[in-house]
Amino acid sequence: MRSLLFVPADSDRKLAKSLTCGADALILDLEDSVTSEHKDVARSNASKFLNENLDRATKTRRMQIYVRINDLQSSYWRADLDAVVAAGPDGIMLPKPRSGADVAALSAALRSAEQQAGRERTHISIIAIATETPGSLLNMASYIGASARLTGLCWGAEDLGTALGAQSNRDGSGRFTSPYLLARNLCLVTAAAAEVQAIDTVFTDFRNDEGLRAEAEEAARDGFTGKLAIHPAQVPIINEMFTPSAANIEMAQQIVAAFKSKGGKGAVSLNGRMLDRPHLVQAQKLLTRAALTSSGNEA
Ligand code: COA
Ligand code: MG
Fold first, then answer.
1. Cα–chain-centroid distance for residue 152?
2. Tens of pLDDT, residues 170-224
3. If you take atom 13 of ligand 1, which residue's CA is the nearest one?
4. Does the beta carbon of 18 sit less than 6 angstroms from any atom of ligand 1?
5. I want to staple 216 with a disulfide (CB 3.0 to 4.6 A). Which of 8, 192, 241, 286 is the partner?
6. Which atom from ligand 1 is nearest to the alpha carbon of 31?
7. What pLDDT does residue 58 have?
8. Which residues lie below 8 Å from residue 86, measured CB to CB, with a gap of 6+?
9. What count of other Cβ atoms lies within 10 Å of the Cβ of residue 100?
């Protein structure tokens, strides 16, 4: 999933629009973009939307549909799960977890909600926003192996900034300041250690396409494979930045070919550069991702 678009689930208009945005995933939001007065309507909209669109989305465009529930310390999250599990979303996004124990608790709750809804064990995945609470940042290793359902980690700077008492999470030129880069980098490393997708955070300045492009480019360079979106106009930019470029694909093919032609050699040279196993693995991963992206686009 390159682009994951948040859609406030209390908005009929945004729900309707989301289907044509070209996002690899939608995240129907029941949390921060929905006021407490609108939680009920958001839940029933989300359930209806899933029932109406899940099959079509999966079959025709391979678009995933996730639901962001409220955090496990809130009084809302159980009702959130009860409202959507029967419809079988592709996944649940968990905000503000305190540690991997919250992921494990959500996983157990998903299992019992599935049973109550009369469903067999499903493949509802979990993406955790692992850096929204300061305590979670001190517990990042706990996400490794927290649940077989965990398929992605993303990071958040808005709630973290509020928790830290910061005046701003970006400097005058719009770049994240160091506490948030710590969160970003820990998310990236933890996702790799947990063998799940690393997903970059939202870019809230949604009319600034160049700023989004630059931030997405840096994220892709560093190893993130997708980015959260908050506005439809961000989706094509994110999709482009997380699709392996023709030049990168060609380079990866040359690297794989260089190893093949030297049959069995651990280190080879290409254009004056030494390549060994990590370069080969990196090239193979990129080619796998390129194949996935192009088969997704053709579907
Ligand atoms: N998903 C689907 N459709 C969206 C959308 C979204 N996240 N954001 C905007 N749209 C739609 C609008 O409804 C509008 O559609 P219309 O032409 O049918 O009316 C169109 O895209 C253009 O929207 P625009 O007028 O440019 O923006 P806005 O002022 O209506 O909304 C935001 C701006 C930021 C409030 C809106 O983008 C939004 O709600 N984003 C998600 C917020 C969120 O989920 N936050 C929590 C995660 S951090
Ligand atoms: Mg939030």
1. 6
2. 999 899 999 999 999 999 999 999 999 999 999 999 999 999 999 999 999 999 9
3. 14
4. yes
5. 241
6. 46
7. 64
8. 47, 117, 118, 119
9. 23
Q: Which amino acid is at 107?
A: S
Burial of 273 (0-12, 13-18, 19+ CB in 10 A): exposed
Q: What is the residue type of 274?
A: M
Q: Would you say the pTM of this structure is higher than 0.85?
A: yes
252-258: long-range contacts, CB 8 A cutoff, minimum separation 24? 252/282, 252/283, 252/284, 252/286, 252/287, 252/290, 253/283, 253/287, 255/279, 255/280, 255/283, 256/280, 256/283, 256/284, 256/287
Residue 299, pLDDT > 50, answer no
Tell me the C-alpha distance between 222 and 21, whole Å: 26
Which of 240, 150, 161, 248 lies closest to 201 in space, CA to CA?
161
The 10s digit of each residue's pLDDT in 223-246 is 999 999 999 999 999 999 999 888
Q: Whose CA is nearest to atom 41 of ligand 1?
A: 230
Domains of the chain and CATH, by start: 3-241 (3.20.20.60), 246-298 (no CATH)
- The residue with tokens 């391979």 is 62
Six-digit token string for 275 = 């390549």
For residue 284, the number of C-alpha atoms closer than 13 Å in the C-beta half-sphere is 10
Among protein residues, the one whose CA lies closest to atom 37 of ligand 1: 231
Question: pLDDT by residue (tens digit) across 21-80?
Answer: 999 999 999 999 999 999 999 999 999 999 999 877 666 657 899 999 999 999 999 999
